[in-house]
Amino acid sequence: MRNRFLTSIVSMAATFVLSPLLFAQTPESSAAKTTAKSAKAFDPRDLSGVWLGNYNESIIPNEILTPWALAQFNSQVTERQVGNRPITHDGEKNNSDPLVNSCDPPGVPRVYFHPRPFEIMQIPGRLIFHYEEYNTFREIWTDGRALPKDPDPAWNGYSVGRWQADTLVVETIGFNGKTWIDNAGHPVTESLHLTERFRRIDQDHMAIDFTFEDAKALTQPFTYKRVYTLHPDWEITEYFCTDADKEDFYKKIMQPAGKQ
Amino acid sequence: MKTSLAASFAAVLGLLLCSIPLLAHHGTAAYDYTKTLNVKATITSFKWANPHCQIEFDVKNDAGSTEHWNIEAFNPAMLRREGWNLGRDSLKPGDEVTISLHPAKNGQKIGILDEVVLANGQVLKQRVAQSQGGF
Question: Is B84's Cβ below 8 Å from some Cβ in A?
Answer without folding.
Answer: no
